[in-house]
Design brief:
By secondary structure, the chain is α/β, with parallel strands linked by helices. The chain has 18 helices and 13 strands. It has an eight-stranded mixed β-sheet with strand order 7-6-8-9-10-11-13-12, with helices on both faces. α12 crosses α13 and α12 packs across α16.
Length: 436
Amino acid sequence: MYRKIIEDLKNWKNSQHRKPLILQGARQTGKTWIMKEFGRMEYQNTAYLFSQENQTLQNLFEAPFDKERLLNGFQLLCGFKIEPEKTLIIIDEIQDIPKAITALKFFYEQAPEYHIICAGSLLGVSLHEGVSFPVGKVNFLNLYPLSFSEFLMAIGKEQHAALINSSNPDAELIKSFSADFTEFLRYYFFIGGMPEVVSTWIETKDFNEVRRVQKELLRTYENDVSKHTSDEMANKIKQVWDSVPSQLARENKKFLYSVVKESARAREYENAINWLSNAGLLTKVFRINKSGIPIKAYEDLDAFKIFILDTGLLCSMTNLSAKVLLEDNKLFTEFKGSLTEQFVCQQLISEFGITPYYWSSKDATAEIDFIFQNEDEIIPVEVKARINLKAKSLKQYRETYSPETAFRFSLSDYVNHGVLKDVPLYALPMIRMFLK
């Protein structure tokens, strides 16, 4: 299964400024597989060290840092000699050994010739719990569920993926295959990009099996919450998590604490939201009150929308029936187009590493679904679940701020209107040719 992040890992390996790498991402996004596959492809040997319930490995990090002692310990655990440049050292679930996280600093300073990758399903949570972190001594990469392009490749549609990812995409050829792309997009909305779910679909072509695996993943996340938090916090996290479909089903998708629980307040639930965010399960999209550079300077931390990590899991949370796949394009408009906004948010992050925001006017009469900074430019994004392209909010934003570039995603064909680019949802990677 091809994952684009392999190219980023190759760049890391060959970088003159390489540091120990931390691979972040939610549970079951494929971190372990990616690290092992990268080791198989690029190194003579891979020293895989699994931290959970490995008391010997934990003991190795208890004493003060000693390069030779640690490497000898790794070799005894793996059963072969670890050679600089030739062996990839993997420490999986590193959050279970906080001193191993701290030790990355010493590997960077005293043993930079060794290639080390670490990962952890709840590493983002651990890093916010007082762990002594080697600031400036590590590199980071984020792994997300499969993007739509990766999904196309996984199901054997490599040429379709190549077509929308071309540096000079053929819009007319893409238009000719729009029916195919739309069908694949419906499948992606329902199946999502979690590797195990995609593999299940490829092997079985059974939507009931797809839903079963999705439910198992959701239960895994719930178990993580119960295992790693207090009962009180676990209850609040579950309330926030369960409220996601209702939050997204509203016309105005700004997060409301009252949807979680009547009369709820921010101070009661903000830690629960942050836990889910740090675990990679939620994305908070903050509102900006003005379009300016840098965009982060204008974010309103009290107003945000939330999206989860995967469209398929969102379908599973709502128990959306697979029968909707037979109803033409109804799937794109389910609960007020929430799945479509979820899809766009997910693709902007996974395909481009974009940090999305949203914008609303001071009088709250206009709202732009997403907005992001591309170098010295602020780009608004309008999302349309239907082919109807009326966009009053986008018109108001353009009249106010005169952006150089604006995108509108829908099921309509590609049209370049000048400043405004109409881009099909299934061809979202086409925007690459307009980004600096």
